[in-house]
Design a protein that fits this description.
Length: 486
């Protein structure tokens, strides 16, 4: 509705009968006044009576004007009420722009410090329940940025992204939410990454999963929040069945979600602080189905590294299709090299390869020569909430900087994935691995138990992208690197 229409709707209807009545009353008053004046003027004190009559008439007119104004004020609407939507629109249209309204003045005042919160609460699925909760949040000065609803059999789980005053604690927010009818309330601090709307975030996770099979565990973590994901293979290292697989459609049990891994085995997702909703279960299952339809896949990029002696090697991603080449590399490695890597019976080393090269358990970098021979492997393994790095370089290619290069790239991948730390399990006598961890220039923690050394590196808080060479001629301590596309 425009301002002109609003102003017109605010006027009272004009009737011609009112004008006719007023005109007739005016003529009648003139005739009566002329008759009275002639009668008084013929008397002995006629002139004085006319003056007194004029004064009385003026006083009566003044009293009538005062009374009319007082009567209209007593029936005026209270302050702030302009008599309906149309009248409020007209009033706002007639406001002088040079004089800001109260709302504009409050908006122009500098706002206090705010923080972002993610909040989940369960409300009754009845009309007005969400409105009551939003009213309480508005009273607390909390701004609702995004809202998702997860229907349940009884009730609805509402997930909010809130901008709240910094002095509002999580306990106070949960207490007020409970007073408004919310139950099972959960809150945690959010950051700027949570400002992305849910459809955009889900599409981004689906794109990452489509490009790289190793992204599925990370995508599930980012989709479901703070949770722990375990990939249980269908068979043990000795070839025995581990347990029953989850059905194709998956299983949802409160805080545990079981999804069938299309590569064999079961994906178990646990979140102890909050039960999963059917909506989250459907999203996770859709990601797993997407991964199953696309099959094995890896990013096609690779780096060609020139060593100081002039030999060229290629660093690329590897998966289970490289198991035969990895077994051939094991056959060429010495017993000492295998013992430093696996810390156990050397005969079981080959059994680990299918597990280590699976994208379900992490990411693997392979180093191969120009002839295609595999000479080194670097693993980034998801271990629940922790992340492990592991290296193995063939004897003839050791002490050339290959292990340090692999370790740096694996740590960069861990930072990009949002990991807070990585750890390496080795032996105190493995000076090469210890030196490579120190060369990362990161805070390190050491723990020694029965000859086994665990080195934990705490990563930087903000994730940084994986290293990308600036140009084909960029120099490294042991050569140069260039990027190639397959």
């Amino acid at each position: 509705m425009t301002d002109v229409t609003s102003s017109k709707s605010n006027r009272r209807p004009h009737h011609w009968r009112h004008d006719l009545i007023e005109l007739a009353a005016l003529f009648t008053a003139v005739v009566v006044a002329d008759t009275i004046a002639k009668t008084i003027a013929k008397g002995p004190d006629g002139h004085y009576l006319l003056v007194f009559s004029a004064i009385a008439l003026a006083a009566t007119a003044g009293f009538h004007t005062w009374w009319a104004r007082r009567h209209s004020h007593s029936h005026a609407p209270p302050a702030g009420d302009t008599g309906g939507p149309a009248a409020r629109t007209a009033a706002s249209a007639s406001t002088d722009p040079a004089e800001p309204s109260d709302q504009a003045a409050s908006a122009s005042r500098p706002a206090g410090e705010t923080v972002l919160w993610r909040m989940r609460t369960t409300v009754q699925d009845t009309p007005g329940s969400l409105a009551a909760l939003c009213t309480v949040l508005a009273r607390l000065g909390v701004d609702i940025l995004t809202l998702q609803t997860h229907p349940l059999a009884r009730g609805t789980v509402d997930e909010f992204l809130l901008r709240a005053p910094a002095d509002l604690s999580a306990q106070a927010l949960a207490r007020e939410t409970a007073a408004a009818g919310g139950r099972d309330t959960w809150t945690e601090r959010a950051d700027a990454h949570d400002l992305v709307d849910t459809p955009t975030r889900v599409l981004g996770l689906a794109t990452r999963t489509a490009l790289d099979a190793a992204e599925l565990p990370l995508a599930l973590r980012q989709l479901l929040g703070r949770c722990t994901l375990h990939s249980v293979p269908a068979l043990s290292l000795t070839g025995r069945p581990i347990g029953e697989q989850a059905p194709v459609e998956g299983v949802l049990e409160e805080t545990v979600m079981r999804l069938r891994d299309p590569h064999g085995g079961t994906l178990i997702v646990e979140r102890p602080y909050l039960p999963f909703t059917p909506t989250e279960f459907a999203r996770a299952r859709a990601l797993v189905e997407l991964d199953a339809r696309l099959g094995p896949r890896l990013p096609h990029s690779q780096d060609v590294l020139t060593l100081p002696e002039g030999n060229e090697i290629t660093i690329r991603r590897a998966d289970q299709r490289d198991v035969p080449a990895a077994r051939a590399m094991h056959d060429r490695c010495s017993t000492r090299t295998l013992g430093l890597r696996y810390h156990g019976p050397i005969g079981d080393a080959d059994r680990y390869l299918d597990h280590l090269l699976s994208p379900r358990f992490g990411r693997t970098l392979a180093v191969q020569t120009t002839s295609g021979r595999l000479v080194a492997l670097g693993h980034l393994l998801w271990d629940g909430d922790e992340t492990e790095v592991a290296l193995m370089v063939e004897d003839d290619w050791q002490r050339r900087g290959i292990g340090s290069e692999l370790l740096g790239r694996l740590v960069a991948m861990a930072e990009e994935a949002g990991c807070e730390s990585v750890y390496a399990v080795t032996q105190a006598s493995n000076t090469g691995m210890v030196a490579a961890m120190r060369a990362l220039n990161l805070p390190l923690d050491y723990q020694i138990e029965e000859g086994t050394l665990v080195i934990t590196a705490r990563l930087a808080a903000p994730p940084r992208p994986a290293p990308r060479p600036a140009s084909p001629s960029r120099s490294l301590p042991h050569g140069e690197v260039r990027r190639a596309e397959r």
